[in-house]
Write a structure and sequence with these properties.
Distance between the termini: 39 Å
CATH class: Alpha Beta
Largest sheet: 6 strands, mixed
Number of helices: 3
Length: 134
């Protein structure tokens, strides 16, 4: 894959993984291994409240969230923007809007991805930082 295609793969992976999350927390049939394989072994996430979670903590929290929301839950990805790219690494910014059960929230996210041709989307999530949008 040419390196110029990498930002497009990252955008598609962001949408794919959030689609999985909607299905998973909605209780739909979904392969959790598809989620596990998306995150690099050294993946870290900083949630909007500043808490840092290593890969296993993120996966444990996601496993426990199976079927935790009612119907009508949705995630929309807006404003994807390539912030930086060097070789097989991409830093992508986007806005994640969640809506369901009468509530809505938004967060600005910055994710670091690296190319991995054997990964489902052709990239691995390496780091994710989220900040609340008020």
């Amino acid at each position: 894959m040419p390196s110029g295609d990498l930002p497009g793969r990252v955008r598609a992976e962001i949408v794919r993984l959030h689609g999985f999350l909607v299905a998973w927390v909605g209780g739909e049939a979904a392969e959790f291994s598809d989620c596990e394989r998306a995150f690099a072994a050294d993946f870290r996430m900083v949630t909007p409240d500043g808490t840092v979670h290593e890969r296993e903590s993120v996966l444990t929290r996601l496993r426990a969230a199976r079927g935790s929301v009612g119907t009508g839950f949705a995630i929309e990805i807006d404003e994807p923007r390539l912030a930086w790219q060097a070789g097989d690494a991409v830093l992508m910014e986007y806005v994640e809007r969640q809506q369901g059960e009468g509530r809505a929230s938004a967060r600005r996210a910055t994710g670091l991805f690296t190319r991995e041709d054997t990964a489902i989307g052709g990239v691995l999530w390496r780091h994710l930082q989220e900040t609340w949008i008020r």
